Amino acid sequence: MDTFILIGITGIGLGALYFLIASGLSLIYGLMGVLNFAHGSFLTVGAFVGFWVASKMGAETSMPEFILAMIVGGLAAGLFALLIEQLLITRLYERHIDQALVTVGVSLVVGALLGGWFGNDLRMFPTPLWFLTAIDVGGAKIPADRVVYIATALLLLVGNWALLKFTRIGLVIRAGVENRNMVNALGINVKKAFSTVFFLGGFAAGVGGVLVSVYSNGVSPLIAGSYLIYGFIVVVIGGMGSVPGSFLAAMLIGIIRQFANYYVTGLGDFVVVILLAGVLLIKPQGLLGKVKA
Amino acid sequence: MNTLSVKDLHVKINESHILHGVSFEVPTNKVTALLGRNGVGKSTTLRSIMGFYPGTGSVQLNGVEILGKPTYKIVQSGAAFVPEDREIFSSLTVKENLSLAARGKNNEKAYESVYGLFPELDTRAQQLAGSLSGGQQQMVAIARALLNKNEILLVDEPTKGLAPKLVTEVADVLARVAHETTMLLVEQNLALVKRVAEHVIVMDQGRVIFQGGPENLSDAAWVHQMLGVSGGHK
């Protein structure tokens, strides 16, 4: 039973990391139709800025210092995302192939620049000592850092929900995900919502970058790779533009992957791809996605 | 006096030349009906005026050029649009659909006026718009346009796909609104057009072939020749 609990909770922790990456990807695609391959670079920028802030605190950080590093990393990634949107993406709306090429280019450039500057080796992320402890849940010893991943993802989910549900910009974003031309036809400049979504998506990816660095035992320009792929899988399974859908899919994938890997080493990725194929065949719009108008 | 003036409007969509120099005027405080067979470019004309499609020529709203401006600026300058397929936001509530459209700070009177026209929307304010019937969705689409003070209302086939009883309801609303605003109406229902229109434009193959009063709509031969339908005698 304790093994079951351990795998389940670590799966949820992994799902939380996927959600942090996928939530922004999902909103960006859902609202703007932009397939953003540069999203991984937002994660990497957030991780490096967070690492820089945490390193200033010493070889280990207190919890408030770690949270500060996470927020600054998120803000830096959000601003970087906004910069990319303003400089490049705004010129390429409705040009999907160009968007894909440019965003892949951004991701390669950021990876090369950071690699050239810092090297590609993992650098240990200074974390609170508490992260190295374990929490007893029903007899299972759960690594404490998993709790931070889950709590952060839940906070982001609630924050996203509150923004989308109770604010004017949230209303515009929800409407824009459904039909952005009609939002314009109501006299609303939907591009302002685009910028907001890019910033929020970048922020979430940056926070995710800091946590991925902790999970991966260090920061490196190469950390985003597989997480970006999983981010896209989560978005497709959850439904383009649906943040709750991304949360559900991320948790599902995290848990299924952990269990599959526990019983047959290396089977996790295969099972996730089977799940993706199944969703695409049975419910192509994703678990909570809507068919576009 | 004309609220809208369209001159030599050419529109191409995906290399297809859809509008071939369309020119017409929409007189102020009158309902102008834009008629023609299916596929002659009526909806494209409305959508081009709203900035959905790029074009060449001139479109002036109260003397100010709006062709080439982004859609949201055209709407802010006073053109409201009720699209052919309603295009309400199905995942939002009725109230959210309306509040998204309302641009002013104090809209209580506008809401009162809209709920006066469509009392059902008030009682269904918290209902998801996607769960409404076709007629109720049309009410939401029209209500969104009426929430703001507009210079002109562009309405594209508001009775399309509606049951006869609902057609009458929508016609009643349009007739009431017609007293207060300038309207450019695309509509296939000739009975409705005859009831509300004071000016008629007929299009064929992307061109305007007639502009004038609605008297000819009672001439069956004229209607058959211009629109390819019977009904002029009604």
Please give a quick description of this structure:
The complex is a heterodimer of chains A (293) and B (234). By secondary structure, chain A is mainly α. In chain A, 73% of the residues lie in helices and 3% in strands.
Tell me the name of the CATH class of chain B: Alpha Beta
Helices and strands of chain A: which structural class? mainly alpha
Largest sheet of chain A: 2 strands, antiparallel
Q: Could you please say which CATH topology of chain A applies here?
A: ABC transporter involved in vitamin B12 uptake, BtuC
The CATH class designation of chain A is Mainly Alpha
Order of H and E elements of chain B: EEEHEEHEHHHHEHEHEEH
The beta-strand count of chain A equals 2
Strand order of the largest sheet of chain A: 1-2
| CATH architecture annotation name of chain B | 3-Layer(aba) Sandwich
Largest sheet of chain B: 6 strands, mixed
Describe what this molecule looks like in 3D:
The complex is a heterodimer of chains A (293) and B (234). Chain A has 293 residues and is mainly α. Chain A has one domain (2-282): ABC transporter involved in vitamin B12 uptake, BtuC (Orthogonal Bundle). Chain A has ten helices and two strands. In chain A, strands 1-2 form a two-stranded antiparallel sheet. In chain A, a hairpin with a 2-residue loop joins strand 1 and strand 2. The longest helix of chain A has 31 residues, at 2-32. The radius of gyration of chain A is 19 Å and the shape is globular. The mean pLDDT of chain A is 91. By secondary structure, chain B is an alpha/beta fold. Chain B has one domain: Rossmann fold. Chain B has nine helices and ten strands. In chain B, strands 6-7-8-3-9-10 form a six-stranded mixed sheet, sandwiched between helices. In chain B, strand 9 (199-204) and strand 10 form a beta hairpin. In chain B, helix 3 (94-101) packs parallel to helix 6 (134-146). Chain B is globular and about 45 Å long. Chain A binds chain B through residues 171-172, 174-175, 178-179, 181-190, 290, 293, and chain B through 50, 52, 70-72, 75-76, 81, 83, 85, 87, 89-92, 96, 99-101, 103, 144, 148.
